[in-house]
């Protein structure tokens, strides 16, 4: 897998490039927006890891460029752990974000998770129904009635996890492990809250009084009726 990695902190970049290379990934490292744009015009990649704050611009700019030209996952690196910046990145089409400082095992698990949705060999021609939603896994699309609902990769995985466990009460740890496939201790629990909130805003008639993804106080959440 070919990865575009854009990060101006050379200490972080050096360690991450080494770790990714050891895992078998082919990494191209850029330190700013200008060099990253040139690299994107000259090469194709399977995934991009973008720092948000760069010397000559923002990772947002690169995300827009990538999503406009290629169907590949994008992960943001950010030192700003607040909902506004996270939501802005997700709305631009980013598939996930991770806050510095982070553990390499966490990033590797996030990386593997977001690439699964883009792996066409894993798609099964199955349609799931969750309340009034239809989830077509063959095309990785979600419909509410006749209207398609556009979800990010992790929003989609979260919804599919609820569909696979319809009617069951799921703890926050179960959801986190289902999304990223590793122990909850490596996950920032605030991330789940952000995704639940954003997913409800997209699929519920009234996100303040959800009927598809319900909160079970003191335990977690339940999807469906």
What features would you describe in this structure?
It is a single chain. It is elongated, with a radius of gyration of 18 Å. It is an alpha/beta fold and 225 residues long. The protein has helices at 10-22, 33-42, 59-69, 83-91, 104-116, 153-164, 172-180, 190-203, and strands at residues 2-6, 26-30, 47-51, 53-54, 57-58, 74-78, 96-99, 127-130, 133-136, 141-144, 147-149, 169-171, 213-216, 220-223. The strands form four sheets. The protein has a five-stranded parallel sheet with strand order 2-1-3-6-7, with helices on both faces. A four-stranded antiparallel sheet has the order 8-9-10-11, covered by helices on one side. The protein has a three-stranded antiparallel sheet with strand order 12-14-13. It contains eight helices and 14 strands. The protein has two domains: 2-116, 3-Layer(aba) Sandwich (Rossmann fold), CATH 3.40.50.2300; 123-223, Orthogonal Bundle (Arc Repressor Mutant, subunit A), CATH 1.10.10.10. The longest helix is centred in the last third of the chain and has 14 residues, at 190-203. Residues 125-225 bind DNA. InterPro entries: CheY-like_superfamily, OmpR/PhoB-type_DNA-bd, Sig_transdc_resp-reg_receiver, WalR-like, WH-like_DNA-bd_sf. The modification 4-aspartylphosphate is found at residue 51.
């Amino acid at each position: 897998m070919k990865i575009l990695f854009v990060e101006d902190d050379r200490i972080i970049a050096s360690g991450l490039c080494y770790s990714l290379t050891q895992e078998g990934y082919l990494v191209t490292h850029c330190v700013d927006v200008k060099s990253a744009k040139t690299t994107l015009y000259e090469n194709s990649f399977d995934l991009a890891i973008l720092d948000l704050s760069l010397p000559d611009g923002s990772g947002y700019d690169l995300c827009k460029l990538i999503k406009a030209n290629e169907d590949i996952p994008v992960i943001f690196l950010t030192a700003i752990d607040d909902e506004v910046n996270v939501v802005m990145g997700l709305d631009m089409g980013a598939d996930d974000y991770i806050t510095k400082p982070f553990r390499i095992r966490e990033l590797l698990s996030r990386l593997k998770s977001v690439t699964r949705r883009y792996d066409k060999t894993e798609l099964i021609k199955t349609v799931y129904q969750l309340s009034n939603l239809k989830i077509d896994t063959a095309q990785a699309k979600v419909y509410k009635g006749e209207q398609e609902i556009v979800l990010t990769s992790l929003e989609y995985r979260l919804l599919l996890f609820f569909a696979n466990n319809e009617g069951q009460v799921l703890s926050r740890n179960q959801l986190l492990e289902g999304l990223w496939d590793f122990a909850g201790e490596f996950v920032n629990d605030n991330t789940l809250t952000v995704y639940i909130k954003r997913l409800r805003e997209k699929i519920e008639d009234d996100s303040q009084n959800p009927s598809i993804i319900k909160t079970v106080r003191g335990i977690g959440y339940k999807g469906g009726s």
